[in-house]
Amino acid sequence: QVQLVESGGGLVQAGGSLRLSCAASGSIFSINVMGWFRQAPGKQRELVAHIISRGSTNYADSVKGRFTISRDNAKNTVYLQMNSLKPEDTAVYYCNALIRRTIYSSTAESYWGQGTQVTVSS
After folding, report:
1. 118 with 93: CB under 8 angstroms?
2. CA dihedral in degrees (7, 68, 49, 16; nearest 10)?
3. Cα–Cα distance between 58 and 73 in angstroms, integer?
4. Parallel, antiparallel, or unpaired: how do β-strands 91-100 and 30-39 relate?
5. Distance (Å, rounded) from C-alpha 29 to C-alpha 15?
6. DSSP summary character for residue 36
7. What's residue 1's pLDDT?
8. pLDDT tens, 11-57?
9. Fewer CB atoms inside 10 A, N or C side of the chain?
10. CA–CA dist 34, 50 (Å, integer)
11. How far apart are CA 11 and CA 34, in angstroms?
């Protein structure tokens, strides 16, 4: 019943910016962690950034100083502001969330969005 829907991907020139959004909907009691992963052709899926409910963030070394993750808890939405984009940032970006569905749930479950394509041209 939980769905994650990403938006904001597209084609941009090197040095440009994009802002990705991911909205979670359905049966949700709380969201412990939200984050972004990406997968380029021929490569493993890798963590880009994540943010916990308290607001602490973590970034991959390759995007530090260029990307910023944030969340709006009232809207169950996470954002990824991507600046100074490079061709090597080209990938499908996936939203991920660790969610407790009800107050009776003792553990959280992991959910994934369908992915949004980001292409950076040189």
Report:
1. yes
2. 60
3. 18
4. antiparallel
5. 39
6. E
7. 84
8. 999 999 999 999 999 999 999 999 999 999 999 999 999 999 888 99
9. N
10. 6
11. 24
Phi and psi at 36, nearest 5°, equal -125, 135
Name residue 81's amino acid: Q
The predicted structure's pLDDT at residue 119: 98
Report d(CA 90, CA 59) in Å as an integer. Answer: 17
H/E segment holding residue 99: strand 91-100
Give the pLDDT confidence of 53-104 residue by residue, as tens digits.
888 999 999 999 999 999 998 999 999 999 999 999 999 999 999 999 999 9
Rounded to whole angstroms, the Cα distance separating 96 from 112 reads 5
Place of tokens 């493993």: 44
Cα 13 from Cα 8, distance rounded (Å): 15
C-alpha 120/C-alpha 25 separation (Å) is 30
Length of the chain: 122
